[in-house]
Amino acid sequence: MKLLLDSTRCQGYGLCQEPAPELVDLDEWGYAQVRTADVPPGGAAAAEAAVAACPNSALRLVR
């Protein structure tokens, strides 16, 4: 499973980082940066929560 970010859709709300701090970092302006596209074993729930938290659908999961 991969966590992908469309940085053109990110508005810097930072809501995605709270449920998945091990997967998503925020830059100094609050914009998301995916640490690694590959979701580690046991990280699926956090990745799904991060995707659901994004109000602009900037994150998506690819299985």
Brief overview, please?
This protein has 63 residues and is α+β, with helices and mostly antiparallel strands. It contains 1 helix and 4 strands.
What brief labels describe this structure?
two-stranded antiparallel sheet; Alpha-Beta Plaits; 63 residues; 4 strands; 1 helix; 22% strand; alpha+beta
Architecture overview:
- With 63 residues, the protein is an alpha+beta fold.
- The protein has one domain: Alpha-Beta Plaits.
- Helices cover 16% and strands 22% of the residues.
- The strands form 2 sheets. Strands 1-4 form a two-stranded antiparallel sheet. The protein has a two-stranded antiparallel sheet with strand order 2-3.
- The longest helix has 10 residues, at 44-53.
- The chain is globular.
Low-pLDDT stretches: none
Describe the largest sheet: 2 strands, antiparallel
Instruction: Report how far apart the termini are.
Output: 4 Å
Nearest-angstrom radius of gyration?
10 Å
In percent, how helical is the residue content? 10-25%
For the record, the count of structural domains works out to 1
Order of helices and strands: EEEHE
**Overall form:** globular
Quickly give the structural class: alpha+beta
Report the CATH architecture. Answer: 2-Layer Sandwich
- Order of strands in the sheet with most strands: 1-4
Return the average pLDDT rounded to an integer.
96
Tell me the total number of β-strands: 4
CATH topology: Alpha-Beta Plaits
Task: Please tally the helical runs, counting DSSP H or I stretches of 4 or more residues.
Answer: 1
User: CATH top level?
Assistant: Alpha Beta
Q: What is the beta-strand fraction?
A: 15-25%
